[in-house]
Design goal:
Length: about 190
């Protein structure tokens, strides 16, 4: 059972507008105008995922709450469009066709492996200088069970897939996910 959305429909639309405007502003060599928004000023972790015709086109985020949410959305949207090393920068034509999905993260907290719930938790695995993060929707989209999710998060961190059994630190978070096509809470 999911909890009620934290963000109102107006707040969600404002954040999505900030994401789109931040991307489009890059083509005019200016920064998107970001007005301080009191209701969206709490520092939060957020990931911005971009899709073009249903295909992943970029994803960049902040796992930790380092800047106000509205600012984090603008920065991660622009980075997802132009700085995701897996893709070429978006073109102006693509920018007008992008669909945006935002994953606003709760604070991370320690978790034991047996407490991880697929479909509820996102994971952060760290050991030494290695750190990896997977969002809550990833194991659902991939059809993974708990152990596969733990192992894949370790691999994302550059660790052996069983590092979660051998000293890696596990932290979990939840996310409110919404985009141009609706809202879900994970």
């Amino acid at each position: 059972m999911s909890s009620p959305p934290e963000f109102s429909p107006d707040q969600r639309q404002t954040l999505l507008r900030i994401a789109h405007e931040s991307i489009l502003s890059a083509f005019t060599n200016r920064l998107a105008p970001l007005q301080p928004l009191a209701s969206l000023s709490e520092p939060r972790g957020v990931f911005t995922t971009l899709y073009l015709h249903g295909n992943l086109r970029g994803c960049v985020g902040y796992a930790l709450p380092i800047v106000p949410l509205y600012q984090a959305v603008g920065e991660t949207a622009r980075a997802a469009a132009f700085d995701d090393s897996r893709f070429n920068p978006v073109t102006m034509q693509e920018a007008t066709e992008l669909e945006v999905s935002l994953s606003v993260l709760s604070r991370v907290s320690p978790i034991q492996p047996e407490q991880v719930e697929v479909g509820l938790h996102g994971l952060v695995v760290s050991l030494g200088m290695h750190r990896g993060l997977l969002l809550p929707q990833v194991p659902l989209e991939c059809g993974w069970d708990r152990e596969t999710f733990l192992g894949q998060t370790c691999r994302k961190a550059g660790l052996p897939s069983d590092a979660w059994r051998n000293g890696a630190i596990l932290e979990a978070f939840t996310a409110e996910i919404f985009g141009d096509n609706g809202i879900r809470s994970w």
